[in-house]
Amino acid sequence: MLSPDLGRSLNTASTGIVNLTDSQRIDWLRLIRSENVGPRTFRSLINHFGSAKAALERLPELARRGGATRVGRICSVDSAERELMLGRKLGIELLAPGEHGYPPRLVSIDDAPPLLGVRGVFDIMIRPMIGIVGSRNASGAGLKFAQTLARDLGDAGFVIASGLARGIDQAAHRCSIDTGTVAVLAGGHDRIYPPEHESLLAELLQSGTAISEMPLGHAPRARDFPRRNRLISGVALGVVIVEAAFRSGSLITARVAAEQGREVFAVPGSPLDPRAAGTNALIKQGATLVTEAADIINVVQPIMGRPIELPIAETTEELPMDREPDASERTRIVNLLGPSPIGLDDLIRLAGTSPAIVRTVLLELELAGRLERHGGGLVSLA
User: What is the pLDDT of residue 321?
Assistant: First the structure.
């Protein structure tokens, strides 16, 4: 029997708060919306220059040093101000890590969105969350179990996070509306997918939230769903996979969850049902087998009180720069890179130079569109 109060305690270790000024928020938005700047690159730029404003001024120079034949598009002040204004008209706030309404656990992943569009009831974001995902073409038994699991976890004080997709996702959302649920969107807040779930979203926003890192007007593409999946696992203590075939996107969520240090749970199914092939395989690989909500609660309860590391706010002045890499260092580092991913530590060791020089060259390559970053700190040439 589940305790009605289990999981309702807030993580009071996450007390640090970042509050951007209006001008900083515009600078942050301009930087993350600029070409070839993703969450990891954003963090590198802030660490290197101390502020988004200083980084914006250096983008063209860095891209040229990285071998770009043209300077990538830099988001204008007008575009950033317009996005911020239109979002607020829809009740969307663009929040930085550490600000009230930004999911505390999401801060800890290495590619956390620098600005997250949040709409709905912000207070539930600091409650413990469990992600529930699974097959879009779910079986009746899978849908029923997802509903039961979401309801029981909600009654125990957990917020349910999912992707607003057909099948398991929508079942989990519907049964946790009263207790709190978070819809993680693959597109902009005004481009809901699938369209028939707009009414479900409107209903869950009365007591829950929707989050997206994408700009308004962005219609989700195939490559946006794996990006969304990392947020589902990132906000949560753990992720439950209810049904998943061998090539299901839910298995991507499970893999990313493990990389993020989240708990991975899987619901067993008939070996005759291809929709259970992926979940059964996860159990063989070490995922926690789930037949009731208590299986999840018993695992996550000990980790709920652990402190969450919050980011350091940007400085008010540009940081002192390391010396620029010379031509021989750039050539040596680029030659060590190729289509196969390599770890940053290995790259530094093989290059025989300082970590700061290697990171600077990687930053230049990334802004020139020549570098691809992978999970686990791996990089390769694009």
Answer: 52
Tens digit of pLDDT for each residue in 267-286? Answer: 999 999 999 999 999 999 99
Q: What is the pTM of this model?
A: 0.87
Which CATH code of 1.10.260.40, 3.30.450.20, 3.40.50.450, 3.40.50.2000 fits the domain covering 125-207+220-303?
A: 3.40.50.450
Q: Per-residue pLDDT tens for 218-272? A: 999 999 999 999 999 999 999 999 999 988 889 999 999 999 999 999 999 999 9
Given CATH 1.10.1530.10, say whether it is the number of domain 327-381: no
Q: What is the 3-state secondary structure (H, E, C) of the chain?
A: CCCCCCCCCCCCCCCCCCCCCHHHHHHHHHHHCCCCCCHHHHHHHHHHHCCHHHHHHHHHHHHHHCCCCCCCCCCCHHHHHHHHHHHHHCCEEEECCCCCCCCHHHHHCCCCCCCEEEEECHHHHHCCEEEEECCCCCCHHHHHHHHHHHHHHHHCCCEEEECCCCCHHHHHHHCCCCCCEEEECCCCCCCCCCHHHHHHHHHHCCCCEEEECCCCCCCCCCCHHHHHHHHHHHCCCEEEECCCCCCCHHHHHHHHHHHCCCEEEECCCCCCCHHHHHHHHHHHCCCEECCCHHHHHHHHHHHCCCCCCCCCCCCCCCCCCCCCCCHHHHHHHHHHCCCCCEEHHHHHHHHCCCHHHHHHHHHHHHHCCCEEECHHHEEEEC
Which pLDDT score is estimated for 177? 97
